C-alpha cells in the first residue's frame, strides 16, 4: 500500500498543518493562509484549496465534523485532521527537510518544521548539510578542472552561481543547527493545539 505521505502536495501539507491547529472550513483555511502569506510558497486559489481538501478527505487524512450556514451564504463544511493525516504530514515534513532536490517542498517543510521535535529537525538538517556538502564538492572540483583546462568563464557562470548558492545554504545550515543545539533557542515552549500563546505566535507570522 502506498504511503499516504507520498501522495501529499505542498499545499496539502500546509492545509493539514492548519487543521492541526483547529478545525476549519476551506474558506477559512484560505483566509488564514493568505494572512500568513503562504502564497509566497504555493499558489492559493479557491479551486486549489477545495480540490486539495477533497483529495485529503478521500485519502482519509481529514474528515467532516459539521456543516454551517451564515445568513444567505452557501453552506460551509468544517473539517478536522485525522490521526493518519497528522502522521502523514509530519512524515512528509521530515522527509523534505532532508532532501536537496525539491526547493518548493523544502521551503514548505521548513515553514512547518516547528511541528516536529527539535532533535528530529536537527537530524534532518544535518542529513541535508551532508548531502549539500557533497554537491558543493562536486561543483567545486568541476569548476577547478574546467578552469585548469582553460574553459572560458562565460561557459561556467551557471555552475559558479550554483556553487555560490550552495555556499550560502551551507553557511545558513551551520548557523541554524548551532542555534537549535542551544537551549536558549525556544522550541516546543507551548502546548498545542489549544495554547493561547501558540495561537498568538502563529497569528503574528504574517510576513
Automatic annotation (TrEMBL):
TM annotation in the entry: none
Database matches in Pfam families: PadR
Keyword DNA-binding: yes
GO terms of molecular function: DNA binding
Keywords assigned: DNA-binding
Domain Transcription regulator PadR N-terminal, residue spans: 15-88
UniProt keyword annotation of Cytoplasm present: no
Signal peptide bounds: none
Annotated protein name in UniProt: DNA-binding transcriptional regulator, PadR family
Species of the source: Propionibacterium cyclohexanicum
Amino acid at each position: 500500500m502506498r504511503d499516504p505521505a507520498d501522495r501529499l502536495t505542498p499545499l496539502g501539507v500546509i492545509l493539514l498543518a492548519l487543521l492541526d491547529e483547529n478545525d476549519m472550513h476551506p474558506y477559512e483555511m484560505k483566509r488564514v493562509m493568505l494572512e500568513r502569506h503562504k502564497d509566497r510558497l504555493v499558489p492559493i486559489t479557491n479551486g486549489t484549496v477545495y480540490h486539495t481538501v477533497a483529495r485529503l478527505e478521500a485519502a482519509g487524512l481529514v474528515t467532516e465534523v459539521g456543516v454551517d450556514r451564515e445568513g444567505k451564504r452557501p453552506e460551509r463544511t468544517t473539517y478536522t485532521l485525522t490521526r493518519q493525516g497528522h502522521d502523514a504530514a509530519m512524515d512528509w515534513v521530515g522527509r523534505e527537510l532532508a532532501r536537496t532536490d525539491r526547493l518548493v517542498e523544502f521551503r514548505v517543510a521548513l515553514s512547518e518544521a516547528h511541528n516536529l521535535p527539535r532533535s528530529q529537525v536537527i537530524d534532518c538538517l544535518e542529513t541535508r548539510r551532508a548531502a549539500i556538502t557533497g554537491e558543493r564538492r562536486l561543483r567545486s572540483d568541476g569548476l577547478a578542472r574546467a578552469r585548469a583546462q582553460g574553459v572560458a568563464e562565460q561557459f561556467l557562470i551557471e555552475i559558479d552561481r550554483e556553487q555560490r548558492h550552495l555556499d550560502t545554504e551551507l553557511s545558513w545550515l551551520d548557523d541554524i543547527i548551532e542555534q537549535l543545539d542551544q537551549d536558549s533557542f525556544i522550541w516546543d515552549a507551548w502546548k498545542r493545539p489549544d495554547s493561547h500563546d501558540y495561537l498568538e505566535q502563529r497569528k503574528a507570522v504574517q510576513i
